[in-house]
Design goal:
CATH superfamily of the largest domain: Jelly Rolls
Helix content: 40-55%
CATH class of the largest domain: Mainly Beta
CATH topology of the largest domain: Jelly Rolls
Distance between the termini: 60 Å
Order of helices and strands: HHHEEEEEEHEEHHHEHHEEH
CATH architecture of the largest domain: Sandwich
Number of domains: 2
Number of helices: 10
């Protein structure tokens, strides 16, 4: 027991990955099914790193020599159009991984990434990833499943943008932020409204109109604070069919 504790402590000192991090990572799809000892072996050459808000993590075209898991905070993935306009591709939240597909595809990052809050990230090198894929069959299947889930999320997002009104998409997002199952709840938006709008595939002014429409089902907003008076009513609105934008 003493040697095991020492090994865990040494791992934490070397990588910055705490016991609580290991517990949380066990709930991430990419690492699901792996016991703590296997996770520590898998992440032996990885590390936890902190970056302040607005830090550029990598730029489009940089070598894809690492990928990331968001432990705390939010990260924006974007590209620049030919006229220099920023196009938000996605926004990654705690528990989500990003940039792993680039390692297999072209070995360069197809997008740029920037911290949009103070962030705490697990950084895994491409070399470590490839070694573990060859040695750990469970991790290999998890990686394939994770990429499949990402593809399904993209398809779902496209479907929502085509079939759901902006009001419904915003309502669905707010429901996802709530830790309650019914009744009244209060949440704080984790991002600027313009970034949430980009994540939901709408313009900031459309976001404002959608938020105003939600007043009809008991949603009140003051700055970043949102009060939902009846979660069941909000869910019913989402599932009742298309509303006008």
């Amino acid at each position: 027991m003493g040697q095991m504790t020492k090994d865990v402590d040494d791992f934490e000192l070397r990588t910055g990955i705490t016991r609580e991090d290991i517990r949380r990572l066990g709930q991430v799809h990419l690492f699901s099914g792996l016991v703590p000892d296997d996770l520590r072996k898998l992440l032996a050459t990885s590390s936890i790193r902190r970056y302040p808000d607005h830090t550029t993590l990598f730029m489009e075209g940089d070598p894809a020599d690492r990928f990331f898991v968001v432990m705390d905070g939010w990260v924006k993935l974007y590209r620049l159009s030919e006229n220099g306009q920023e196009v938000v591709i996605s926004v990654s939240s705690p528990g989500e991984s990003f940039a792993e597909a680039a390692i297999f595809d072209s070995s360069i990052f197809p997008v740029s990434a920037v911290a949009i809050t103070d962030v705490r990230l697990l950084v895994i090198s491409a070399e470590s990833l490839m070694r573990q894929l060859s040695e750990n069959m469970n991790f290999t299947f998890n990686m394939l499943a994770s990429m499949s889930r990402q593809m399904r999320r993209n398809v779902t997002k496209l479907h929502q943008m085509c079939s759901m009104s902006s009001t419904e998409r915003l309502a669905d997002f707010l429901i996802g932020l709530s830790h309650s199952h019914n009744g009244t709840t209060r949440i704080t938006l984790p991002l600027d409204k313009s970034l949430i709008a980009a994540r939901l595939g709408m313009q900031p002014e459309t976001f404002s109109r959608a938020l105003a429409k939600l007043k009809g089902v008991g949603v009140q907003s003051v700055g970043h604070d949102i009060m939902i008076k009846d979660l069941d009513a909000l869910r019913a609105m989402v599932s009742s069919g298309p509303l006008s934008c």
